[in-house]
Amino acid sequence: MTDMFVSLGTWNWLIFGFVLMALEVLAPGIFLFWLGLAALLVGLISFAVGISWQIQLVMFAIFAAAAVPVWRRLARPKPDASASPFLNKRAEALLGREFTLEKPIIDGSGTMRIGDTVWRVAGPDTPAGTRVKVVQVDGANLTVAAA
Questions:
Q1: Is 13 helix (H, G, I), strand (E, B) or coil?
Q2: Which of 5, 99, 104, 128 has the greatest number of C-beta atoms within 10 Å?
Q3: How far apart are CA 121 and CA 113, in angstroms?
Q4: Contacts of 121 (CB under 8 A, 6+ apart)
Q5: What phi, psi does 46 have (nearest 5°)?
Q6: Closest C-alpha among 6, 15, 16 to residue 52
Q7: pLDDT in tens, 45-60
Q8: Do 34 and 71 form a contact (C-beta atoms < 8 A)?
Q9: 93-112 residue pLDDT tens
Q10: pTM of the full structure
């Protein structure tokens, strides 16, 4: 068994790395690319520095183990904040928009339906059917003014 490891040279690591990468192309998503990359690194380092087969195996194990967090970091989709800047901030998305009151604002408070949600609104007394603009947001309360 030891003779087999001793006979493993630099070329064998490079071939092993390319075979693993080729298998990844044939069966994507199995994580073989990163193991192939680890084998290629061991082969390239072995070319530069003459090291024993034991150290080569340890280096391969270290590179393969280090590939896991690298792969997880690169494979994780990055959230695109510009795609939905008001995600979980529905009220802030209403700021500056204009709506028509379905019910009047009486004594400075009332409600207004926006989409499928009824919002509490505050502002000057305004009859139903008036266009209003959202000027301030405080939690689930909207402050409106005549548009």
A1: helix
A2: 99
A3: 10
A4: 101, 105, 109, 110, 111, 112, 132, 141, 142, 143, 144
A5: -65, -35
A6: 6
A7: 988 888 888 899 899 9
A8: yes
A9: 889 999 988 889 999 999 89
A10: 0.50
